[in-house]
Design brief:
By secondary structure, this protein is α+β, with helices and mostly antiparallel strands. The chain has three helices and four strands, in the order αβββαβα.
């Protein structure tokens, strides 16, 4: 039986999550992308709490004209997430790409977060 593209991604995501775990000292930066938007959050898995979050649906991007699922928007979301994480006292994270290839918008978000000061 052939698996759909989404099922293959979820299978990869579960496999990665067996090893990637967010602690209070080094929380997990989790990325999710849809065709229209990109979302990212910093999660402490020991308590199950989201410490910082940003997405292309944020009010900060209300005046943004253009497609919200592209690299330019991913860069803005990465910068915003890094700024919010640092305000929460987070400097180091472990990156969870969510079963996606480290390519395109996922890569752009990660590089923008690194440039804005997050270490991973």
């Amino acid at each position: 039986m052939a698996l759909t593209k989404a099922e293959r991604r979820l299978r990869r995501h579960r496999r990665v999550r067996k090893k990637v775990f967010g602690t209070p000292e080094r929380p997990r930066l989790c990325v999710y992308r849809s065709l229209r938007h990109i979302y990212a959050q910093v999660i402490d898995d020991t308590r199950g709490h989201t410490l910082a979050a940003a997405s292309s649906l944020n009010g900060d991007f209300r005046d943004y004209r253009g497609h919200r699922g592209n690299k330019a928007m991913a860069r803005l979301v990465g910068q915003l997430l890094a700024r919010r994480a640092q305000e929460a006292g987070i400097k180091k994270v472990v990156f969870d790409r969510g079963g996606y290839k480290y390519h395109g918008v996922v890569k752009e978000l990660a590089e923008a977060a690194r440039e804005a000061g997050l270490q991973f």
